[in-house]
Design a protein that fits this description.
The chain is an alpha+beta fold and 100 residues long. The protein has helices at residues 2-16, 22-35, 76-99; strands spanning 40-48, 53-62, 65-69. The chain contains three helices and three strands, in the order H-H-E-E-E-H.
């Protein structure tokens, strides 16, 4: 999944020559899913009780917003990647709190 996400923007640029509409397209799709109460499973940022930070994980999204968080049972490398992200987010929050 990590490689898919990393390559997403590159693939858009290769296909269209630019990516200026990609964010708008994604936002429009998420809004459509919410308005239609589709309850789709998508990666989106939400506060995670488990990790204690807001990060992008798989969530079911519907009319009431984020409905469920799906536990990721990836391999060890993927789990370590999530832990690195959580650590980086917590470190950034600590820096911001110190500078406030």
């Amino acid at each position: 999944m990590e490689e898919y996400v990393k390559q997403g923007n590159i693939n858009i640029i290769r296909g269209k020559g630019a990516s200026e509409f990609a964010i708008g397209t994604v936002i429009a799709r998420v809004v459509e899913a919410i308005v239609r109460d589709e309850r789709i499973v998508i990666p989106c940022s939400c506060y995670s009780e488990e990790y204690g930070v807001t990060l992008s994980l798989l969530h079911r999204v519907g009319r009431r917003g984020v409905l469920d968080e799906f536990e990721i049972e990836g391999n060890q490398e993927e789990q370590e990647g999530i832990q690195r992200s959580v650590g980086a987010l917590k470190a950034a929050m600590e820096r911001l709190n110190r500078n406030s």
